[in-house]
Amino acid sequence: MLKIRVIPCLDVKDGRVVKGVKFLDLRDAGDPVEWAIAYDAAGADELCFLDITASHEDRGILLDVVQRTAEACFMPLTVGGGVRTVDDIRALLLAGADKVSINTAAVKNRDFVKEAAEKFGDQCIVVAIDAKAVGPGRWEIFTHGGRNATGIEAIAFAREVVSLGAGELLVTSMDKDGTRSGYDLALMRAIADAVSVPVIASGGVGTLDDLVAGVREGHASAVLAASIFHFGQHSVGEAKRHMAAAGLPMRLDT
Amino acid sequence: MSAAPTIAIIDYGSGNLHSAHKAFERAAREAGSDARVSVTSDPDAVRRAERIVLPGVGAFADCRRGLNAVPGMVEALEETVRGRGRPFLGICVGMQLLATRGLEYETTPGLDWIGGDVAAITPADTALKIPHMGWNTLDVRRAHPLLAGIPTGADGWHAYFVHSYALTPADADDLVAVTDYGGPVTAAVASDNIAGTQFHPEKSQKLGLALIKNFIGWRP
Predict the structure, then answer these.
(1) A5 inside 8 A of chain B by CB
(2) Is the interface score ipTM higher than 0.95?
(3) For A88-233, where are the E strands, in sequence order?
(4) Mean local confidence (pLDDT), A233-237
(5) pTM for the complete prediction?
């Protein structure tokens, strides 16, 4: 049986982890590769790097991080942030990323999703959808960390990018992100039920029960979280055991 | 000049071979093998290799075109793998290419080393998502040296899958393992010195490293 995936996400700026605090026994808590190795050992099912480096010129640093991670961890790695062109995707895949997440570029130009999927295969194109509630049962796409409204309805957008070849959707509620009050379950469910591809729930996890709810009520195939893992509140192993105890199919043989 | 045997991972423009390269190197090291792992698009390097690995991601037809586009590669594979019986491992679409035909988007001829078609997965439960993406267990249909020592079944180890199409071998003897995704889906095939996995051993942590080590020691 296919298992539910737990995906820790690291924000990386200029090749360094931001937001993380020193709780694991890492020699260098700012080194994403050390985090990747620790999460790998803890049983993470995939890993996600979100690059928040401001300057596109400093891309080489991220590529180096991806390459060193791929050398050390034999697990799937998704990299997002600042992916604008087919060349950006190619560079990340060649460095060792398995999947690349596209956000603003997909909103600005839907054909980019199609071009990317045709070139590299659906399986490695993740579209990251940042959405905010604008009314009951209605969400809109926002870009630039939730600051810029686009007027695009989220569920229609999700359907469209899947029809263009997105192999997976990473759905983040901008209302919930950083609140630790749980995923926007109605948003997750609305999108997961509308598309044929897997949905990764993101934004708002505060407790391990939130992860369970993301799957059971949000119908997500995978759950992504950052702070509950980075701040040492819970380990990935604890999260997976908790989800298994709640009756979800989890991979516990790590 | 080193006379160490080589494991050739074929580079034909289908995706990233970095992690496959590193995983094979690590498995060789852990297995105490002195084999050298090379990523190559040189047919002569394939002819010289002791073992051959054909990876592949993306669509069947694209991969087939990519393989055909490397001058002399298909001939080198036919000669070395089929003619001289060198151990061969296909991974993901590299495994699917062993089939008679691929039916993704268009009908494309495969290498036809393992009879059968590659067709869309159609889970009985329509709520199941496509692609089949993530970690799943293996059910053995025929014991095989590549799976030696790897716990299988519902409580066994997990392999990492990402695919929407699967190879169904025409001859049931070629089916080594399946995984359950709304019904049995081919996970591993083998015939003589030729084997393939739908999952990605290079992404499957301990199961993957164990399988790669088994491949490195395989004497079909």
Answers:
(1) yes
(2) no
(3) 99-102, 125-135, 138-143, 148-153, 168-173, 199-202, 222-225
(4) 92
(5) 0.94
